[in-house]
């Protein structure tokens, strides 16, 4: 049966490693990015690829935690959790960031499979957004930052 949840789950999968009409999916955007490229700052005050990946992981994890029932899980906008500023600039650190992002993908796909269409219209733990908004939001957020990554890796 082709439900709305199934379609959202497919969008989540496609934005990760499937066909996207606009260009690269997230894995393609990250393909070939080594630690040197990941940590390179294009200009003072801008984010590098590593920071973008950790930022995406942060918000993917936020949605995952809430989908698992952890309504108390919080992330403050523009905090160190949202945008890391101090970290090791090593190959191991970069590889860990990629592993965290992939782990979050697997967790989100599984979490979405446990939601039904009726829940999509429900508020996400008392917030002013619905599950539909948050699930599409995480996909849109990834697409936005995938474009930035594609530009930064050149």
For the residues shown, what is the average pLDDT?
94
CATH class: Mainly Alpha
The end-to-end distance, rounded to whole angstroms, is 42 Å
Please name the CATH architecture.
Up-down Bundle
As a percent range, the share of helical residues equals 55-70%
Give unreliable regions as ranges.
Answer: none
Beta strand count: 0
**Full CATH superfamily name:** dinb family like domain
Q: From the alpha carbons, calculate the radius of gyration and give it in angstroms.
A: 16 Å
Please trace the helix and strand order, writing H or E for each element: HHHHHH
What is the compact description of this entry?
The chain starts with a helix and ends with a helix.
What's the topology here?
Layout: H1 4-17, H2 26-30, H3 35-39, H4 49-67, H5 91-113, H6 131-152
Helix pairs in contact: 1-5, 1-6, 4-5, 4-6
What would you note in describing this structure?
The protein has 154 residues and is mainly alpha-helical. It has a single domain, classed as dinb family like domain (Four Helix Bundle (Hemerythrin (Met), subunit A), Up-down Bundle), CATH 1.20.120.450. It has six helices and no strands. α1 packs parallel to α6 and α4 runs antiparallel to α6. The mean pLDDT is 94.
Q: What labels describe this entry?
A:
154 residues; mainly alpha; Four Helix Bundle (Hemerythrin (Met), subunit A); 6 helices; 57% helix
């Amino acid at each position: 049966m082709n439900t709305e949840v199934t379609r959202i789950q497919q969008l989540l999968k496609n934005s990760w490693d499937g066909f996207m009409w606009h260009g690269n999916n997230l894995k393609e955007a990250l393909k070939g990015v080594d630690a040197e490229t990941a940590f390179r700052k294009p200009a003072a005050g801008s984010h590098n690829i590593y920071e973008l990946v950790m930022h995406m992981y942060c918000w993917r994890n936020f949605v995952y935690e809430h989908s698992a029932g952890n309504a108390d899980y919080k992330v403050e906008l523009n905090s160190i959790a949202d945008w890391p500023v101090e970290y090791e600039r090593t190959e191991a650190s970069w590889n860990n960031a990629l592993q965290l992002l992939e782990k979050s993908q697997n967790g989100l796909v599984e979490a979405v499979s446990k939601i039904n269409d009726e829940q999509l219209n429900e508020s996400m733990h008392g917030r002013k957004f619905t599950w539909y908004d948050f699930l599409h939001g995480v996909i849109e957020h990834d697409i936005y930052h995938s474009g930035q990554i594609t530009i930064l890796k050149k």
